[in-house]
Amino acid sequence: MTGRRNRRRAALLIAPLALFLGVFFFWPLATMLAQSVSDPAVGRVLPLTSAAIADWDGQGVPPPEIQRAFATDLHEATDDLAVGDMVRRLNSAQSGFRSLMNKTLPAVREDVDVDLASLDRKWSNPAYWQAIRGAVSPLTDRNLLATMDLERNAGGEINRMPAGSSANGAIILRTLVVSAIVTLCCLLIGLPYAMIAASVTGWRRAVLLGAVLLPLWTSLLVRTAAWFILLQDSGLINGMLTGLGIVDQPVQLIFNRLGVVIAMTHVLLPFMVLPIYSVLATIPANLMPAAASLGARPLRAFWRVLLPLALRGILSGVLLVFMTAIGYYITPALVGGANDQMISAVITQYATGSANWGMAAALGVVLLALTLVLYACYGWLSREDAVRLS
Question: What CATH architecture does domain 168-389 belong to?
Fold first, then answer.
């Protein structure tokens, strides 16, 4: 009885945390996953057509009963917003659907028995009916395939989209490349900095750590705007370079990949320094002198003694920086050019620009999958490291 009461009390104590996680984490995550494979725009407006066209083999023009069901659905559709969503969905599947529906809708609403083929010869083209057949299902993998520049043809086979029709794959690759470059820059700067901070004591250590922590107390937008001012042609950096006679003309440091890397490296550097420093601070200070007393040169002692012990902090820093970098939006948007925008900017465009929530959610799923893969790799490396140390 006492054990049951204790378990009930424990459940009540963690209930607020469980509720918080459910409302602010699991529910949005489930909504995003569902939205990425949800496609109700056409089936909601064409319920009779959805039922009638399911048995059609997709060859030639569909029989009159399917055309009659389609005309009836359009005649009874009164929600113009839903009809607009349907038209956008069908037009994305088959070019020319928007103009076709603009011509068909008024005629069908006036006379449900109108002959579609005589109204517009496009209705004699099986491709338009195949587009309807492929879009009536409430579930689809279309958005997930489009993130990789793939699509299904009329036969259901997965093919690559025509060149120039989609750039999602290139943007994802660009996001990974920029994130990897930023992570490498943070590691090259952060590891020596953390080693210096761990090797000193007193006020020197406090100053070094304060220099890392101070940017974290400043708004990300403010820090990015500061780099926007520093990197412009008339900014402090170009003014110094031209004043010292190093260059004759201002160097292009903004609205390109270089500016994005510089600004993101500065913003994300603390996430590399702090994990490495926290591990280095626990390593006994006499290990490197001991290695030197045994004849090891400084570089060899670093490679064989210090680096393996600091590997856990390095992996943590790399993981934090890379996962944060792949979701960056403000910095590339302000200091990058049109060819430097990352996947978060595309998600924003789909969500707010074209109201294509399915594609926005699908690209969000891609980011989630990348994050889970990184966590899995980190977990595997951590287990391997623990096995070696034991």
Answer: Orthogonal Bundle (1.10)
Instruction: Give residue-wise pLDDT tens across range 255-269.
Output: 889 999 999 999 999
d(CA 96, CA 227) in angstroms, rounded, equals 45
Tens of pLDDT, residues 284-304 = 878 877 877 777 787 888 888
Give the whole-angstrom CA distance, residue 71 versus residue 65: 10
pLDDT along the chain (390 residues), means of 10: 76 86 87 86 90 85 90 89 88 86 89 87 90 86 86 77 80 92 95 91 89 84 87 86 85 88 93 91 82 79 84 88 90 85 87 80 88 80 58
Portions of the chain given CATH number 1.10.3720.10:
168-389
What's the per-residue H, E or C state across the chain?
A: CHHHHHHHHHHHHHHHHHHHHHHHHHHHHHHHHHHHCECCHHHHHCHHHHHHHCCCCCCCCCCHHHHHHHHHHHHHCCCHHHHHHHHHHHHHHCCCHHHHHHHHHHHHHHCCCCCHHHHCHHHHCHHHHHHHHHHCCCECCHHHHHCCCEEECCCCCEEECCCCCCCHHHHHHHHHHHHHHHHHHHHHHHHHHHHHHHHCCHHHHHHHHHHHHHHHHCCHHHHHHHHHHHHCCCCHHHHHHHHCCCCCCCCCCCCCHHHHHHHHHHHHHHHHHHHHHHHHCCCCCCHHHHHHHCCCCHHHHHHHHHHHHHHHHHHHHHHHHHHHHCCCCHHHHHHCCHHHCCHHHHHHHHHHHCCCHHHHHHHHHHHHHHHHHHHHHHHHHHHHHHHHHC
In this structure, which amino acid lies at residue 285? Answer: A
Q: What per-residue confidence (pLDDT) applies to 188?
A: 95
pTM higher than the cut 0.85 = no
